[in-house]
Design a protein that fits this description.
heterodimer, A: alpha/beta, 3 domains, 13-stranded mixed β-sheet, two-stranded antiparallel ribbon, 15 strands, B: mainly alpha, 2 strands, transmembrane helix (chain A), Phosphatidylinositol N-acetylglucosaminyltransferase subunit Q-like (chain A), membrane (chain A), PigQ/GPI1 (chain A)
Chain lengths: ~600, ~290
């Protein structure tokens, strides 16, 4: 069997003392967490370990002894051996390092043989240690059959890192216990209370671990923690007020309900409310996933608001708003004029197609009248447009996403005529397609059997056949005209929908992109680990393996995938084929039914 | 063990697969092909009876020719729509009377259509045709004439091909629809809405009602039926002859070949018929065509 000892790098130069850590059950491995220095009273050490065990929930124990004798301190062998009788353990590690030779010696005492402690001695001699604690090259002279592998790890990084894929503690007890590595990571992460005692503490014990030189903390973080409590209370109160307003009965009536589900500003508002509710909840985040979710939402919110402020600072400077408003009405006029020309072209002989003249004229005049109505409406609205822009621009202080959603809604409202044309064209076309398909069955003497979901043959009456054929002929000859109108207006509609889709996608991107996680990955790559890799420190024959454990950072794509805030666009969408089929049959397509967004 | 190695006479060969026998798989004994039967249930046709049956095909052909003739007259303005309507009305009334007479002769068991239902159907036909005739008139305005002619020709051909000659009384959907489609196409080329209406009524008469009457005639008065068929053929050829001699010639040739030549061929070729039956499953080749699609 190979005994693996996870040894923290910060304890390489520690004074002599007791090794505190944990035996990982089921695996031949031990995790050393800290060194408690001499002098100590054994009772106090036992009490301390007990206390830490209840606080951290880790089965801590005294693993063995560590000795790094100073100049002139010799002959501690017997003392160290006696220690093992004070702290009764199944196995007792005696790891020592000599100052002059920088050698590592490991003795393993087994208590298996009743009372009589069998001793197995390992001796490792360190070679010239050039880089100090960092790159140690150890040489091991093996004398016994049991091999020991030292795995050096950086305690701080391992404590802070989260091994992926994440297991949320809901593990099935029947399945295998978590892997050795995962247990080791968990052990280090959970023994945080052990690392709170630093050298400035007045307690009876002194210990060495990664924080023993002084605790790491940031005064800004502490201040923010203090400030966040009243802020959260305020936000919660505002949210409850907002929820109360939203729950007034008048808003649950049909038109409001319908409108608010279709306007992207309202949708964005509801998402943001949800986010703020998550953020301002008084309970601390349970588990890594929830913490990351909160942090991601918070950072996206901050970035969103900052971008919105940038937009505002541009918008309200140099009279940009009135400029925009003044260009809007001519633009709408221009679009209407282009549409009129398009309709005139369609009413002639477009592209040499043979259209039914009567129907063509009727449709063309109908649409022209519609455009006329629309233009008068726009001109009626034109004095108010600047005001609408001015107040609408204020919404950007809630975030760039709000401004974008508002823009999307405004585009939808300003291109309402195109939408109307599209709906008329699609309805007409849909009617024709369905009529033709069922009349084609009649033409062949078949019918659709609803009960069996298949086409059956059927004998029709004479008059049914006659009228059916008459209608079939009429529909067939009118189809090209309708189809052309449908095609043209669908293309126009697709342009609008594409633009809205791009806006929605960018809003969705800001809402769901895990900025915090990506930032962590870039600045503190060890926080999100995907595994570890081992670097061989000493590979000479006749020596034991000395490995340096390094953390493998998570891939950026995986980070984005794992920590993406779920929004509507995360759900599966209709395929392109389904979209094309819908377009062909003449079913209506919408940008807000996010299953059918054209982009992406 | 080859097929030639003689089996032991002790074990007779059985035509079964579930038993292990000392014979090769492809072994057959002397009784092979004993149960073969040829031309089972083959009817021997007589020439003139076949000709009589083929008369129906011929008269349908000449019906189409007659309709085309009428349309030609209408298009050239030689026949006024009022005249055609009047004639159609008289024909319809006469035909209806005849139909009633022929129906009352046969069994009263199966429930006949009431007069009211007939009247309702007629009202529906007339009102729909009349209401839609202005629409139909402008329907194919922008479509080129050649396209319309080609479509009509294809549809009339489809009518002739898919016509249920054996049992025409409930008219076959596809054949009737194809004929009506063709007549709508043709009628939309006529100069006025009334023309269209008259033409469509005439089409209804020729393609929908006439086969019903003829079927009754074939069931109840076979001798008169033959006469009517001959009359229709002569009428079709003669009518087409007043418009185009070439067309009349072609129609006459077609009628001759369908009613005289084809039955002759059928009767002649009958003796070459060699259909085998036996107590075996016929081999069917189910070619998997789907692999050619990829």
């Amino acid at each position: 069997m190979v005994l693996k000892i996870f040894f923290p790098q910060c304890c390489n130069r520690a004074d002599s003392g007791l090794l505190v850590g944990r035996w990982i059950s089921g695996h031949e491995s031990a995790v050393v967490l800290a060194v408690i220095h001499y002098p100590f009273i054994p009772g106090q050490v036992k009490q301390y370990v007990q206390q830490m065990q209840t606080r951290s929930g880790v089965e801590l124990s005294v693993l063995g002894s560590w000795s790094l004798p100073k100049e002139g301190q010799e002959g501690m062998e017997s003392f160290l051996r006696d220690l093992s009788t004070i702290f009764p353990q199944k196995r007792w590690l005696q790891i020592s390092r000599q100052m002059g030779k920088t050698g590592f010696i490991c003795n393993v005492l087994n208590r298996d043989h009743d009372g009589e402690s069998a001793q197995k001695v390992k001796r490792k001699k360190k070679h010239e240690d050039v880089k100090g604690d960092e790159g140690e090259e150890d040489k091991e002279e093996e004398e016994e059959e049991e091999k020991v592998i030292f795995i050096h790890y950086e305690q701080r990084k391992v404590m802070m890192s989260q091994l992926h894929p994440i297991e949320n503690g809901l593990q099935d007890p029947k399945t295998d216990s978590p892997s050795e590595l995962r247990q080791m990571f968990q052990t280090v992460a959970q023994s945080q209370p052990l690392f709170f005692m630093d050298k400035y503490d007045d307690g009876p014990l002194k210990s060495t671990h990664w924080q023993s030189e002084g605790r790491e903390a940031s005064i800004i973080v502490e201040l923010l923690k203090q400030a966040s409590v009243p802020l959260c209370l305020l936000v919660t109160w505002l949210l409850s007020l907002w929820t109360w307003i939203c729950n007034i009965r008048i808003f649950s009536l049909y038109p409001f309900c319908f409108l608010s589900s279709k306007l992207s500003t309202c949708v964005q508002l509801s998402y943001r409310t949800e986010h703020m509710r998550t953020l301002s909840s008084p309970r601390p985040a349970a588990g890594h996933t929830q913490f990351m979710r909160k942090a991601n939402i918070f950072v996206s919110f901050l970035v969103d608001v900052a971008l919105g402020m940038l937009l505002i600072s541009w918008l309200y400077r140099d009279n940009h708003i009135s400029m925009l408003a003044n260009t809007l009405v001519p633009a709408a006029d221009h679009v209407a004029k282009q549409l009129e020309e398009l309709l005139q072209w369609l009413m002639g002989a477009p592209a040499g197609l043979k259209m039914n003249r009567a129907l063509d004229q009727v449709l063309g005049r109908f649409f022209l009248y519609h455009i006329h109505l629309w233009i008068s409406y726009i001109h009626l609205m034109s004095p108010f447009i600047e005001g609408i822009f001015w107040y609408g621009g204020l919404s950007a202080c809630l975030g760039l996403t709000f401004a974008l959603s508002l823009l999307s809604d405004m585009v939808a409202l300003l291109t309402f005529h195109i939408y109307c044309f599209y709906v008329y064209g699609a309805r007409l076309y849909c009617l024709k397609i369905y009529g033709l398909s069922s009349l084609w069955r009649l033409f062949r003497g078949k019918k659709w059997n609803v009960l069996r979901q298949r086409v059956d043959s059927c004998s029709y009456d004479l008059d049914q056949l006659f009228i059916g054929t008459l209608l079939f002929t009429i529909l067939l000859f009118l189809l090209p005209t309708t189809a052309l109108y449908y095609l043209v207006f669908t293309l126009l509609r697709l342009v609008v929908v594409l633009f809205q889709g791009v806006l929605h996608l960018s809003v969705d991107f800001i809402n769901s992109f895990p900025l915090f996680a990506v930032g962590l990955r870039v600045c503190r790559f060890y926080r999100l680990a995907e595994g570890v890799k081992f670097r061989v420190l000493c590979d000479e024959p006749g020596t034991a393996l000395h490995l340096l454990m390094e953390i493998n950072p998570l891939k950026v794509s995986t980070v984005v995938q794992t920590y993406r805030t779920p929004t509507y666009s995360c759900y599966p969408k209709d395929s392109w084929a389904a979209l094309v089929k819908k377009l062909f049959v003449g079913e209506l397509i919408y940008p807000w039914r996010h299953k059918t967004t054209k982009t992406d | 063990m080859g097929p030639d190695s003689a089996p032991g006479p002790a074990v007779p060969w059985q035509k079964v697969l579930w038993e292990r026998q000392p014979f090769p798989d492809n072994y057959v004994d002397q009784r092979f092909l004993e149960e073969l039967r040829r031309n089972e249930g083959v009817r021997q046709y007589r020439y003139w009876s076949v000709v009589k049956e083929a008369g129906f095909v011929g008269q349908q052909l000449s019906c189409v020719a007659l309709f085309i003739t009428l349309w030609l007259y209408m298009e050239q303005g030689l026949l006024s729509p009022e005249m055609l309507l009047l004639t159609s009305l008289v024909c319809a009334l006469l035909g209806y009377g005849l139909h009633q007479v022929l129906t009352s002769q046969i069994e009263p068991g199966c429930e006949p259509r009431t007069r009211l239902a007939d009247l309702q159907s007629a009202a529906i036909f007339l009102s729909f045709t009349f209401g839609f005739s202005p629409v139909l008139k402008t329907l194919t305005e922008s479509v080129s004439t050649d396209t319309v002619y080609a479509m009509s020709a294809v549809m009339l051909l489809a009518h002739l091909v898919s016509f249920p000659y054996a049992q025409p009384s409930p008219p076959g959907s596809l054949s009737l629809n194809a004929a009506l489609f063709a007549s709508v196409c043709l009628a939309s080329r006529l100069p006025g809405a009334l023309h269209t209406f008259a033409m469509l009524s005439c089409a209804l008469l020729v393609f929908a009602l006439w086969p019903c009457l003829l079927q009754r005639l074939r069931e109840n008065a076979p001798n008169q039926f033959t006469g009517v068929c001959v009359g229709m053929c002569i009428g079709g050829v003669g009518g087409l002859g007043t418009q185009s001699l070439g067309g009349a010639m072609l129609l006459a040739i077609a009628l001759g070949s369908v009613t005289l030549l084809c039955p002759l061929l059928l009767v002649r070729l009958q003796r070459h018929k060699d259909n085998i039956h036996g107590p075996w499953d016929e081999a069917e080749i189910h070619e998997d065509l789907s692999r050619f699609l990829h």
